[in-house]
Amino acid sequence: MENMTSNKSVLSWINEKIDLVKPEKVVWIDGGQEQIEALRAEACSTGEMIKLNQELLPDCYLHRTAVNDVARVEGRTFICAPTKEEAGPTNNWMDPAEAYEMLYAIAKDSYKGRTMYVIPYSMGPVGSQFSKIGIELTDSIYVVLNMAIMTRVGADVLEALGDSNDWVRGLHCKCDIDEEKRYICHFPQDNTIISVNSGYGGNVLLGKKCFALRIASYQGKNEGWQAEHMLILGLQKPDGEIRYICAAFPSACGKTNLAMLIPPEGYYKNGYRVWCVGDDISWIRKGEDGRLYAINPENGFFGVAPGTNEKSNPNALASTRKGTIFTNVAHNLDNNTVWWEGLDKNPPANAVEWKGNPWNGQESEEKGAHPNSRFTAPAVNCPCISSEFENPDGVPISAIVFGGRRAKLAPLVYQSRDWNHGVFVGSIMASETTAAAAGAVGVVRRDPMAMLPFCGYNMADYWQHWIDIGAGLDPEKAPKIFNVNWFRKDDEGNFMWPGFGDNLRVLDWIIDRCEGKVEADETAIGFVPKAADINLEGIEDEVSDAQLAELLSVDVSLWKDEVAGIEEFYGKFDRLPATLKSELETLKANIK
Ligand code: OXD
Ligand code: MN
pLDDT tens digit string along 456-471? Predict the structure, then answer.
C-alpha cells in the first residue's frame, strides 16, 4: 500500500518499526467508511468481533478481550523520563534506554504473519490550535475501529501535520497478551508511547490516557497549557446563556453521568439544560480575552457499561444505540443484542457472559458483564452533545470543580478562597474505596486532580504548573474553583444527597457564585452555601432542612485527621511548592 504522507520523520520512524516487528503487510488508515466496513467484516470473519442486531443496534459490534486483560494496569504503567525524580514519587519509572531495550526485545518480530495498521489521528478538531497529532501503529483491528470512534482519524490529519516533527509516536503490539510481559511505557521527552501484551482499551487506545493525559500533561507544562482528567459541560440557564464547567473526579465517581445530566423536572421546565462537551479529558489554555478555554480532545465516549440505564444516564444509553463497540458485556442470543448489570431488571436467559461461556442471567450467580465492561460510542450520537463540541477555539470556563467520594468529611459543595487555595483543594483530592474494587472498603486513596494515574511527570511540578497558570490570569477572569461531594452518608450509612440530575442544584449555585449572585458562609475550609441558596423544590421529601444543614456542615475534628493524612501524602514530595505548604499551614491554623 502506498504511503499516505511524505513527512520524513513519519516515514523514517515507521520504517524503523517495520524492521523491528516485521509485519506481513502495512495498511494506512484513511478514515473512509469503505475501509472501516472492510475491517469490521474482517474482524467478524476471524471472530475478533461479533456483528450485533443491525435493526436494533445499527453498526454495533461486540468484542471480548482476553480474560486476563480487562482493565488499565497501573502497576505496569511507566513514565520513562531521564531521571526518576522527573517522573516523581507517584509514578513508576524506568530508565529510557533500558525500557527501549526491553520493549524492543518483546516487540521484535511480533507482527510476523500479521498486518501493521498505521493510524494517523488528531486529538482535538483537525487544525485547531489546541489540537495535537499522533500516529499509532497497531496489529489489532479492534484498536483501529475504536480509535476511529475515539479520535479524528485519516488523511486530513496528515495534511494538517505537513512536514512537522511535532507528533506523538505510538507503537502497540498485542504479542501474546502475556500479563508478565505487559508494559505501558511513556517517553515524554521523545513524544513516544509503547504498549505491549494488552488488547484492553485504556492500555492500547493510545490517544486517550497515554497521549491526551500522560504525554499531553508534560507537553502542556512545557508549552503553557494544561491537560486534565476533566469532563466539560455547558449549563444553560433560563436566560438562554450557557456557562461552562470543567470537573475532575477519580474514576468511578460518575463523570460521564454528570457530563450528560438531565435537569430535574422543575428546572427543565424553567429552561435549564446541560450540554456535554466532554466526559473524560480537557485540554485548557488561555484565550486572547484572558479567560481559560477548554476543548475535549476526544471524539467519542469510552464509558463503563454496568450501571448505565434509562434512569442513571439516558443520554449515554442513547449514545450507544448506533456505531458502538461493546467490550466484555453479555451477549443476548435471543435477539443478538447486549446486556449488562444495571441495564434493566430483566437479564437474558439465553446468553453468553463476558468470558464467552453460556450464561443464564435469570438463574446464574455470576455476572454477565465484566464490572469494567465498556461502550465505545461516537460523541455525535449523544442527544445532549454541545453545539460547541467541534469549536476549534474551545469554550470559556467559568468554574473548575473537584470531587471525590467522602462519607463524612467534605460538605456537599464548597468554594476555594482563590486560585491557589483551589489548587490546594485539588491537590488534596481523595476518594474512599468502594466495594466495587478489590481491597478494603472505605480506605482513603489520594488522587490529586484525579490525575494520580495520568500525570506524565513529577506531581509536585504539575502542582507548580497549576500555580503558574493561575499567576498568569487576571483573578477576575480566572475560573472559580470548587469541591463537591455527592457521596456524603448519614450515621446509618445511607447516602444523604440524591445525586444524578439533582446535582444540577449544586451546579446552579456554583454558577451563581461565579457571577457574584449569592453570598456564602466562610468556614475553615472555604465558602459553603447558605442553606436557603440550595434549591430543594421537588426533593423536600428526600432531603429535609436538617439533612441539608448536615450536608453543608464542616466537622473540624474530622479535618484534623485529614490534615495528618495530607501531611503524610505531601511528605512524599521533595519538590512540594511553597504555595501548597503555606495553604496547608493556613488550613491547620483555621481548624485549631
Ligand atoms: C477511564 C478511567 O477509563 O479514568 O476513563 O479509568
Ligand atoms: Mn477517566
Answer: 999 999 999 999 999 9
pTM for this structure?
A: 0.97
Q: Do domains 8-30+72-223 and 228-296+389-591 have the same CATH topology?
A: no
Domain ranges of the chain: 8-30+72-223, 228-296+389-591, 300-381
Q: Is the pLDDT of residue 568 over 70?
A: yes
The verdict on whether 253 is a catalytic residue reads yes
- 8 A C-beta contact, residue 559 and residue 549: no
The residue nearest atom 3 of ligand 1, judged by CA position, is 202
Please give the full DSSP string across 445-461, using - where no structure is assigned: EE-GGG-TTT-SS-HHH
pLDDT tens per residue, range 272-300: 999 999 999 999 999 999 999 999 999 99
Q: Tell me the C-alpha distance between 189 and 207, whole Å.
A: 17
Residue nearest to atom 2 of ligand 1 (CA): 251
- Distance (angstroms) between ligand 1 centre and the Cα of 304 equals 8
pLDDT of residue 436: 58
From residue 235, alpha-carbon distances to 162, 178, 242, 259, 518 in Å are 38, 45, 5, 10, 17
- pLDDT at site 443: 87
Residue 251 Cβ < 6 Å to ligand 1: yes
Report the CATH fold assignment for 228-296+389-591. Answer: Phosphoenolpyruvate Carboxykinase; domain 3 (3.90.228)
CA quadruple 385, 215, 577, 394: dihedral positive or negative? Answer: negative
Q: Does 2.170.8.10 match the CATH number of domain 300-381?
A: yes
Which residue has 506481513 as its cell numbers? Answer: 24
User: How high does pLDDT run on average in the chain?
Assistant: 96
User: If you measure from the C-alpha of residue 229 to the centroid of ligand 1, how many angstroms do you get, rounded to a whole number?
Assistant: 9
Strand partners, 400: 246, 481
Q: Which CATH class is domain 8-30+72-223?
A: alpha beta
